[in-house]
Amino acid sequence: MTKAEELEKALGNGVSDYARDLLRSKDFTILHKQQVVSPIIATPSVMNLAGTPTTDQIYERADKLNWDLCPAEVGPHLVLALRSQPAYKDLSIELPIWTAMKQIADRSGDPGVFRVERRDDGLWLDAGWARPARRWVPEDQLVFLPRK
Prior knowledge:
By secondary structure, this protein is of the alpha+beta class. It contains four helices and seven strands, in the order H-H-E-H-E-H-E-E-E-E-E. Strands 1, 2, 3, 4, 5, 6 and 7 form a seven-stranded mixed β-sheet that branches. Strand 5 (111-119) and strand 6 form a beta hairpin. Helix 1 (3-11) runs parallel beside helix 4.
């Protein structure tokens, strides 16, 4: 079993078909060495981006802030980390949270990224489109990593 398969198994039933497509993609990779990260969760408005910036504009601004895109595995690991909290249903973390990452093509060839969301039956790993010209609302939350 590959590490990607192990990660998918650990997520159980809380994985959408679109997220499963990304997890099973040849472009989904897992770091060889486990790392502890301190994610940055920010909105376009907090990043001082006016209006509805595009994916490319958000990624460019993050680069200027010395923030890196996340490895794709951060999305699934974020779900697992939040689920491991004793009272994750009562967490004050606002969801959904999008993973700012290099996009992976979904089943239709559209560039997608992971999204952590809360549904009636718990936390889920989902995925959504993140085309370069996609417009994001000021309140959308994205997770980045501080540059080393």
